[in-house]
Design a protein that fits this description.
This protein has 113 residues and is an all-alpha fold. Helix content is 60%, strand content 0%. The longest helix has 29 residues. InterPro entries: Fe_hydrogenase_HydB (IPR008953), Fe_hydrogenase_ssu (IPR003149), Fe_hydrogenase_ssu_sf (IPR036991), TAT_signal (IPR006311).
Length: 113
């Protein structure tokens, strides 16, 4: 059993749910419900993986024909994935706008984010 101080939120919620289920239903019913929930998650996860493998023929972005055409020698971004033009067009930049936000709040403007 983990120390409650080092337990994550998710672990705490799982433990609390299991404890409440035990208190209401008893140990066997709670254990069976927990096992069936885990089984359902496993079945769902496997069905998603199976659907992805059967439906999508291109599973990696580097295998996409449009991407390979884009980065080809005669393509738009012929310098390659780490070239100057691709970096300029495809990468984002962070601009610190916290001073503007503080100025608006100082004026009394309430923002709902």
């Amino acid at each position: 059993m983990k120390n409650i101080a080092t337990m994550t939120r998710r672990g705490f919620i799982k433990l609390a749910g299991f404890t409440c289920g035990y208190a209401v239903l008893g140990f066997n019913v709670t254990r069976e419900a927990f096992a069936s929930a885990l089984e359902f998650v496993g079945i769902r996860q496997q069905s998603v993986y199976d659907a992805d493998s059967k439906i999508y023929s291109i599973r990696k972005s580097q295998e996409n024909p449009m991407i390979t055409k884009l980065y080809a020698k005669d393509g738009f971004l012929h310098e390659g994935p780490c070239g100057h033009e691709s970096h300029h067009l495809l990468h984002t930049h962070y601009y610190d706008r916290s001073d503007r936000l503080k100025a608006l709040k100082a004026k009394g403007i309430k923002l709902s984010l």
